[in-house]
Amino acid sequence: MSTTSSTSLGADFSYEAVTNRWLDTINNGENTVEQEGAIVDALTAAQVEAFEEMLPEGCYWQIEEGSLLYTQQDIDAVDRKDLEHYLARSAEIVSERLPEIEPRALAQFEAKALAENS
After folding, report:
1. Following CA atoms 8, 87, 23, 111 in sequence, which dihedral angle do they give, to the nearest 10 degrees?
2. How far apart are CA 10 and CA 3, in angstroms?
3. By the 8 A CB rule, do 57 and 49 touch?
4. What separation in angstroms does the CA of 49 have from each of 26, 91, 94, 113?
5. Which helix (H) or strand (E) element contains residue 79?
6. Model confidence over 49-107: pLDDT tens digits?
7. pTM value > 0.85
8. 95: left (phi over 0), alpha (psi -120 to 50) or beta
9. How would you class 78 by CB atoms within 10 Å of its CB: exposed for 0-12, middle for 13-18, buried for 19 or more?
10. DSSP β-bridge partners for residue 49
11. Side-chain half-sphere of 37: how many Cα atoms within 13 Å?
12. What are the helix (H) ranges across 55-79?
């Protein structure tokens, strides 16, 4: 049985840094702060998913802590440059899907708001 550990990935991998980058990407004045928050949440979740797909099995990005959860045997296959590449590549993948993710996030936000006000 493998031991599970975590390691800090640094500020670029933190929830705050990732969400701020997405907010900078979408902040064009077309949406309310609440709508932007819903879009940023969806983009961030999609980026975590894309990032984790590049990791070896058994490794997970704990974005809230800015860390990587792993078993020792899994982490041996990944070095720091790989992680930085995965971060950039996962952002590119999600950017390409922005036209799909944004309207879906807004529709879910509006449905939730409507349900709460009924």
Report:
1. -100
2. 22
3. no
4. 20, 11, 10, 26
5. none
6. 999 999 988 889 999 999 998 876 666 667 878 999 999 999 999 999 999 999 999 99
7. yes
8. alpha
9. middle
10. none
11. 5
12. 72-75
